[in-house]
Amino acid sequence: MKGMTRRALIAAAAGALLATTACNVDSGATTASSPAAGGTASAAPKALKVGWSTIYLAPSWMQQTLKMLEDDVARLKGEGKVASYETFNANGDTSQQIAQIQAMITQKYDVILVDAGSSTALNPVMEQAVAAGIVVANFDSLVTSDKVIRVGTDQVEWGRMTAQWLADKLGGKGEIIAMNGPAGVSVSEERWKGAEEVFKKYPDIKIAANVHSEYNLAPAAQAFASAYSANPDITGVFSQGGALSAAALQTLVKQDRKLVPITGENYNGFLKMWAEKRREGFSSIATAQPNYLSVIALQAAVAKAGGANVPMNITVPLPEITDENLDQFVKPDQPDDSYPIQPLPQGEIDKLIAGK
Amino acid sequence: MRGDLDLVWLGALLLVALAVYWRLDPTLPRPATITILSAQFLPLILAAAGQTVVMLTGGIDLSLGAVLSLGMAVFVTNPAGNVVASMALALAVTVLAGAANGALVAYAGLPPIIVTLAASFLWAGVTLIVLPQPGGQVPAELVRAYNMGWYGLALPAIAIGLALAVWKLVKTTRFGLALYAVGGNEHGAFANGIDTRRVKIAAYGFAGLFTGLAGIGLAIQTGSGDPTIGTPYTLNSIAVAVLGGISFFGGVGRMRGTLLGALLFGLLSNLLLFTGISTFYQLILQGVVLVVAVAVKTLAARERVA
Question: What pLDDT score was predicted for residue B277?
Fold first, then answer.
């Protein structure tokens, strides 16, 4: 009797596992049975098997990126350039991301896109993929390997561009609070490096406080409030992230103070507040980590797999959101936690991929 | 006897998982694939082995992921100028970090869950001082030999074998017996003349050794160090140990159960990568498989007792 129970349990478990495999057989069949819908595209001789491994998928920025990527995949499928597409979410676990890329190598993917959880830890497995003849394109959070296509923005320029606007706005003198991301995070360090370069040129701009905070509204609001109560006479705020900017502006509005210029990002919560307070003389500049980095990476990889010459480093220009063009970006009907962006014209993408 | 039956159940599940995996990836039995998979599973197996030692004392280690990153960080900054000495130094650091956790548990009489939670912040901070951002160096030849095979040998698999052999030896010593005694009945062990505090400190230190080895393995696999990469290993190691039949209350469970549990956990999450089901369902399925595996095992055990 005992033995039987045990055997029954084992059988049940085996069944459960096999059920999992059954799913695979289905999806395997669909991918295998869609050969290149030959014709229109002369560059791509066969339709490609494409996968994206991302360190996170849940944040709204990632969700928007996924949507944009899937739309472009659908278009490329229509052109017969892409046969199948798969997303792999590592959920913050870099080791899992290594396993995902390994699994894609085993399953003979043609193109692997990567939004990296570590700037170094994925290098060996990505280089292994390249050695196996797979085109690997990395975007957004970049790795240090020079064997893969890297599509990103210049974070130092981000800091430089927004800081320069602030310096000009202040006429080269004043007192500011700097709102930076967490210490030790490379994005934060790079943006501040660019900003610092600019502020060094203006000895009359005094940095009253340099605040580090998570890129989240609540902790940023706290951090800003205490820095502001110690320095209520500031004439501007350098902020390197949208939630940080929203926190600063929110604090000024709540305390009914003068709305000094604050630099920003395309975080919709900030854009909405900016649009509302623009009437009262609030002024800002914002830039963005554009979601279309994913689309550029996909198109570059597909072009390279089709034999085209593609630059290994593609630096995508940072968008500029100003008092004048703000209305094209802000989305009053959408939640605060979204990142509105204007799509990049296909002509611009083609230029970037061609290395012009 | 009961432990053996548990392991039979786990082993059977593992065989099924292996068979399915073999169907999806026909290269499974080849040395190259074994090398890659063992490199991939080594950090989890050794981290879970460390967690097992702590759990056998009736404790839990929430700082394991941070200590793993710390060992990795010390190793890749190459403080001693050569690989072997840096490895030894990294292990010394993780053993000391573990022993420090153990000393707080043993002498301050604080619950392990609180001590190690606090320690996780402490060690994460120390790691950031050692290695503020991803980087560091691991010799390229070592990375290649470890990940691609060395004269056809799967080095990570050998390393796992050696580490577990050490455990087998240690288990038969007085310390090994005392470990189970302290975990099973601390007062009884104390009454029988066992220095329970020393046993605990040694156990946490020993866990630090396994955790440090996991960190070094991860560094060689990835060819670099990353100060935050260890975090997921804390919960994964606990999940694996529980799956392997290690009791939360101490004194019950065997290392081979943890090994089977880690292999099953690793293979299952890899299998899901082959299934092509949507990524959020993969997480759900992974959780469900874990719960079902543990629940069925527990129910089976209860039925036998009844």
Answer: 74
Q: What is the pLDDT of residue A4?
A: 45
- Are A198 and A223 within one domain? yes
For residue B18, the model assigns a pLDDT of: 94
Q: In angstroms, what separates the C-alpha of A124 from chain B's closest C-alpha?
A: 6
Same-domain status, A103 and A90 = yes
Kindly state whether residues A164 and A279 are assigned to the same domain. Answer: yes
* Number of domains composing chain A: 2
pTM of the predicted structure, to 2 decimals = 0.85
CATH of the domain at B120: 1.10.3470
pLDDT tens digits along A228-284 = 999 999 999 999 999 999 999 999 999 999 999 999 999 999 999 999 999 999 999
For chain B positions 254-273, those within 8 Å of chain A (CB to CB) are 269-273
DSSP of chain B: -HHHHHHHHHHHHHHHHHHHHHHH-TTTTSHHHHHHHHHHHHHHHHHHHHHHHHHHTT---TTHHHHHHHHHHHHHT-TTSSHHHHHHHHHHHHHHHHHHHHHHHHHH---HHHHHHHHHHHHHHHHHHH-SSSB----HHHHHHHHH-BTTB-HHHHHHHHHHHHHHHHHHSHHHHHHHHHHH-HHHHHHTT--HHHHHHHHHHHHHHHHHHHHHHHHHHHTSB-TTTTHHHHHHHHHHHHHTT--TTSS---HHHHHHHHHHHHHHHHHHHHH---HHHHHHHHHHHHHHHHHHHHHHHHHHH-
Determine the pLDDT at residue A36. Answer: 40
Asked if A229 reaches chain B (Cβ–Cβ under 8 Å), the answer is: no
